[in-house]
Write a structure and sequence with these properties.
The protein has 2 domains: 21-200; 216-327, Homeodomain-like (Arc Repressor Mutant, subunit A), CATH 1.10.10.60. The chain has helices at 21-46, 48-58, 60-72, 78-99, 104-127, 139-161, 171-174, 176-200, 216-232, 242-249, 253-261, 269-286, 295-301, 307-318, 322-327. The chain is an all-alpha fold and 328 residues long.
Length: 328
């Protein structure tokens, strides 16, 4: 689902960007799901194309896992490649078992590998939203993860556990195909809703441990940065960047960044600036002299580029919306 997106980050906070794994894996999941449905409904009419669709459709479990993983993680480099490699391996095993001529034992081993891999990925997709649940401080994010996992488990229970392996003459066996196809389309629609939610509520950045112990110079620079932010209210500038602080302090950008994540203890620059913006917004929302001002005006005056990032950052900090905060 690039750099980690900070919840409520100011300028540029627009959710998953073009090329983001959230959308790419979601598209792969939709394509595999549709291939599964076409092959299930029209297999007898498709001939060799049906075998190809079967291989693509068999990867539905893997793509659904990757799509789910991308919704709840931000990974780069090798950490993001091994799950994709696992899905491609399962697809290769499925394709080899379908198209390559081989003895019975190797074919059975490949079929078992594809089946076990797909089953494992289904379970991983259920667990993925819950793995980092305790670390989430935003109640809305926690609720989103729980609802997603519960919905996925419900679809899995109905579409797989309830109908697979049912006695041939049972109602479950007769309804197996329409139930599975219905579950597929429900899953596609559910992922679309989840993707829309994630665009509106980007993942919150996790605090990174400083790579080195802050030195005395870092604390001195931290005091200088804090003084600039407080006395000059630089945080009210919507386009404020690390480079601006570096220019004002006369230090290289990397030193300012080290100071922010080390001596000052913030996860990143955006989190630091937003903490000042939210503090100022809370002060203005409490001030009777500002009671006549719309919340949008206060958000813009405090340095946010639009109302959406402000509302998300404010709720993450206080647990309530700006409207409720103002009334209380």
């Amino acid at each position: 689902m690039g750099s980690i997106v900070q919840l409520g980050a100011s300028p540029g906070d627009s959710g998953p960007a073009k090329g983001d794994p959230v959308a790419l894996y979601g598209a792969a999941f939709v394509c595999a799901s549709l291939a599964f449905c076409l092959n299930s409904l029209l297999a007898s009419r498709l001939g060799a194309v049906g075998s190809l669709l079967a291989v693509i459709g068999n990867a539905t479990c893997g793509w659904s896992w990757l799509a789910t993983r991308a919704l709840f993680r931000r990974e780069e480099g090798r950490h993001a490649l091994w799950p994709l490699g696992a899905v491609l391996l399962v697809m290769a095993a499925s394709a080899a078992g379908s198209f390559v001529s081989m003895d019975d034992m190797p074919r059975r081993m490949l079929d078992n590998l594809a089946s076990l891999g797909s089953s494992a990925m289904l379970l991983l997709a259920v667990a993925e939203p819950l793995l980092d649940l305790k670390a989430q401080t935003d109640p809305a994010e926690r609720q989103f993860r729980i609802i997603y996992a519960a919905a996925y488990l419900a679809i899995l229970g109905i579409g797989v556990l309830a109908v697979d392996g049912a006695p041939p003459e049972s109602i479950a066996a007769r309804l197996s195909l329409p139930v599975k196809v219905a579950c597929v389309f429900i899953a596609i629609g559910g992922y679309g809703l989840a993707l829309s939610h994630r665009k509106q509520h980007p993942l919150q950045a996790r605090a990174n441990k400083p790579s080195r112990k802050p030195a005395a110079a870092d604390f001195a620079l931290g005091e200088q940065v804090t003084r600039l932010l407080c006395e000059n209210q630089l945080y009210t500038e919507a386009d404020l960047r690390v480079a601006d602080l570096a220019k004002l302090t006369g230090e290289p950008e990397y030193k300012v960044t080290q100071c922010i994540t080390g001596a000052l203890g913030f996860a990143n620059f955006n989190q630091m600036v937003n903490s000042y913006r939210i503090a100022e917004a809370k002060r203005r929302l409490r001030d009777p002299d500002h009671a006549h001002l719309p919340i949008l005006t206060i958000a813009l005056d405090c340095g946010f580029g639009s109302i959406g990032p402000f509302n998300r950052a404010f709720k993450a900090d206080t647990g309530m919306t700006p409207q409720i905060y103002r009334r209380q």
